[in-house]
Amino acid sequence: MKHPFRFRSLSRAMRRAVPIACATLAAVVSATSAAAPDSPRADDQIETGRYLAIAANCAGCHTARPNAPYAGGTALPTGFGTFYGPNITPSREHGIGTWSADDFWQAMHLGKAPDGSPLYPAFPYPQYTAMSRADSDALYAYLMSLPAIDTPNRPHELRFPYDQRWLLSAWRALYFKPGQATPVTTDDADVQRGHYLVEVAGHCTACHTPRNRWGATDLARSLQGAVMPDSKWYATPLSGDAAGLADWSEDDIVQVLRTGFSRHGTAAGPMGEVVSHSTQYLHDTDLRAMARYLKTLPAATPAKPPRAAPDDAAMVTGARLYEQHCASCHGAEGEGAPPHWPALAGNASVKAPLANNVVLSILKGGYSPTTAHTPQPHGMPPFHALSDSDVAALATFVRNSWGNAAGPVNPHQVTPLR
Amino acid sequence: MIRFRPQWPLRCAGKPGAPRTRRFGTALLFLASCMPWAVQAHTSEEVVPGTMAARVAACTHCHGADGQAGPDGFYPRIAGKPAGYLYAQLLHFRDGTRNYEPMRYLLQGLGNQYLFDIAQYFADLRLPHAPPARTTAPQALLEQGRSLAINGDTARGVPACAACHGNAFTGMQPHIPGLLGLSRDYLAAQLGAWRTGLRKATAPDCMAKVVEQLTPHDIAAVSAWLAAQPVPEPYVAAPANSFSLPIECGVTPLPGTRQP
């Protein structure tokens, strides 16, 4: 039988956007897996599981519109090939209908399928491994309460040798320890909860922490920013660096997770998806806990040598293009018209260490996500008709104007992002 | 606010008295600027944040400042199309059942209600139509297209376009689009995409059933004829249920309404 959590390959995959999510609740955990069906305790447990599934953004990988929720099919492109999130509804044939709560715990905590075969860490069990048993049981109870959808799983499309599942044993021996998570050294229960939401349930690390060439997250550089597994978007640092959250207040962090917008910019690309499907729905206390935990992270990056100065010709071309295409919304001084049109002066994505996000925003445009707070967001047009050198000049200009000093962008950096 | 700025034929201007070769070039430019596809997609500087016109700047960049169509026939007119039709297309693009990656990417974070708001915004825009492009199609082909569009082909069981899209090809509220005012390339591309399964409508997909009976020659003929027709003003979709369809078509439920 094919069961769901069989991800192959080592994964960078997890870094994808989807992640943040998770969360919550270690606390809510009062219901136990032993609660009788239909009892109030069972209802509480299912509700806990529902909230956890949102916090973990399970739908990000396991729901492919227009199909039914959690029936699988979402593509997760990585350097190892493309993973497809499996069906996790209670379908006995295609989902997890034959799994017990122990089987589910084995997947979450040990990264193993019920038959003991190793799962690909595109399924973020290296983060979920630190989830409490009670939360795993709640998630299981919730998923088993859903309608069974008999949608077959789409096999992963992985390159050799990553399609050789037995190789995962070596990977696991090197890079996976059950129960492992970044240490949190505080007695503050609120911060501990934020840690649990960020590092475990929300698996923010899956995208925001650099990985080695075999796709293992480097916990020594936890949350210090990384390019996503599809080699396109850059998950910005969440550490206390200037490029990270040094200038962000807790309120700013809560606001961006709740609404997709803050004075530092707009959640775009994969992070927009996370806000849209996950963080906007979390309780205020949980978003606050996440913000408090993130603000405890130190500035880990050593001071970098000054970046190369931008080329004058590129700045002149960029200024002309900016005036022509961008200034009517983002303002002559990059001031924007927040919250509708984000400022580019001081924008975290614009002045990020890597230029990927600003280049992708120029090429693809985009909407910030619809949320309860922002039901009708503003959209930016795609400018994919511009040449690579024009996009590079424009990106160079906005990264080095109005107080931004993030260094030049080369046309060769633009080509692979198309 | 965005204001509609017609680029044709008002801005056709040549310079008398120029040297002969230059005059020839100017004449070409003059002709070109009078073509309907010279309608410029542009975003006005006057867009005010917080308005729908500003919210849909991502759309109007390609589809024209007021959704009147892009300059080259690739980006179709969206202004004035029935809201249910536009809404269904937005859902299909977002969910990947109509394939165009830039549209999928733009819409991926948007909820159904907002997609309907956007659809309604463009459906409510009333703009004059450009005259049809001068056709280069042979008369015989046009005649075949006319016949198919108006009469269908009973021998092959192909219904007329008019049977569903209305006798004046205006479409019907809220789900059936009008067929005039679209470029020949766009029409042929859509019919071709249905034929190869790339484009689908909400199930049951009645367009797919019709198109599978069309030959490439039929598609060329009907596209050429429809694109050559002037658009009668006012060009508005017929009221809902004002005529019955010869074939069962899927209906996308609209937000706030129940599926019958």
Helical region count of chain A? 15
Strand count, sense and closure of the main sheet of chain A? 3 strands, antiparallel
Write the element-wise H/E pattern of chain A from the N-terminal end onward: HHEEHHHEHHHEEHEEHHHHEEHH
Distance between the termini of chain B: 38 Å
Major sheet characteristics of chain B? none
Radius of gyration of chain B: 19 Å
* Structural domains of chain A: how many: 2
The low-confidence runs of chain B, each spanning 5 or more residues with pLDDT under 50, are 1-44
Average pLDDT, all residues of chain A: 89
Just name the CATH architecture of the domain at 20-123 in chain B: Orthogonal Bundle
Low-confidence stretches of chain A: 4-34
Helix-strand category of chain A: mainly alpha
- CATH topology of the domain at 20-123 in chain B, which one? Cytochrome Bc1 Complex, Chain D, domain 2
Oligomeric nature of the chains: heterodimer
Could you estimate the helical fraction of the residues of chain A in percent? 25-40%
Determine the most extensive contact between two protein chains: A-B, 28 and 31 residues
Task: Summarize the topology.
The complex is a heterodimer of chains A (418) and B (260).
Chain A lengths: L39 H16 L2 H5 L12 E4 L2 E4 L16 H10 L14 H4 L4 H12 L12 E2 L8 H9 L13 H13 L3 H4 L17 E2 L6 E2 L14 H10 L1 E2 L2 E2 L2 H9 L6 H11 L17 H19 L25 H9 L1 E2 L11 E2 L7 H12 L11 H4 L4
Antiparallel strand pairs in A: 1-2, 2-3, 4-5, 6-7, 8-9
Chain B lengths: L19 H15 L17 H4 L1 H7 L19 H13 L5 H7 L4 H12 L15 H13 L9 H5 L18 H12 L10 H6 L4 H12 L33
Helix pairs in contact in B: 4-5, 4-6, 7-11, 9-11
What structural keywords apply?
heterodimer; A: 418 residues; mainly alpha; Cytochrome Bc1 Complex, Chain D, domain 2; 2 domains; three-stranded antiparallel β-sheet; two-stranded antiparallel sheet; 9 strands; 35% helix; 5% strand; B: 260 residues; 11 helices; 0% strand; disordered N terminus
